[in-house]
Amino acid sequence: MAANPPHRQPELTKLSETIARYRPSKAFSNFAQGAEVTSLDFDDTGEFCIATGDDETLQLYDCKLGKHSKTLYSKKYGCHLARFTHLQSNVIYASTKENDTIRYLSLHDNSYIRYFKGHKRPVTSLEVSPVDDQFISCSHDDTVRVWDLRSHNCAGLLNITAPSLAAFDPSGIIFAVAAQSTGAILLYDLRNYDKEPFTTFNLVDNSFLSQYSYPPRMPSWSKLEFSNDGKHMLVGTRGHAHYVVDSFAGDTAQFVYRAKRPNGPTSPKKLETSGDVCFTPDARYLVGGQGERGVVVWDSWMQADEKQTLKPFIELAENTKSMASVVSFNPKMNLFATAHKDVVCYHL
Where is it found, in Gene Ontology cellular component terms (predicted)? Predict the structure, then answer.
């Protein structure tokens, strides 16, 4: 990645000092003892945060008031990957028991609005369009499905081997599907998703992978996300490095390196989380977990080394006892949340 122009350096220093001031301000322990948080999401306004746990509960938090709002139970069906729709009172989430139905839930009265049936195996990714009522789901049944919140019928179906993750670009026109088994990212036009992907990026490059493991192998992928300016994609992994990919050229611009890889699920029955790394809303920084060492921040504007590797420039609350196995940044307010067994909010 090219060096930054000299005239931008004063601005860089000021912004870097700002991100370095984040500290954990409040921790919430609302899940059952021993339970682990599997996903976090903020609504469009940033006022609310929803968390799912493997104790089969959804926990709602009020970010403005800094308090826990309510507990919602899904004991019969389980819950994972809760995502706000464009109404802060409604979420969709994946079932983990009984069947693999996606459920559309009203948080106001804890009643189901609609069911989305079709997947035959567990859902691995669930993403709502940033601009309308469409959403995408991936599943272990080797399908990607396109849905509309207004209809229980599947609007579109793609057969892709091991489509583990999906993400919309900020315009809502393009969506990406990460196929872990092939090490590829497939880009589709939502208006013509029934056709072949218009671009395929292959991340399997042994010259890079050999830096982190021998024999070279791709670590398990846990997160796929576009930056808010649409210029880059983030592929989060369970290994020692994440990947920052140019959305237009497909080149792996940088490897975001962390010294301490996170623990995976503590048992085979535990769910993989929705990812422990994310972009900040300004598309410049990446915030991620560092195992038991707390949270670290990478500055994508910094110069990578000769191996295209970028190391964290700051550790936030490195002595915290709360591991960050899930990380999500608030889209409107100056805070982000991490979770493992508790949900921890970081403020300036």
Answer: Set1C/COMPASS complex
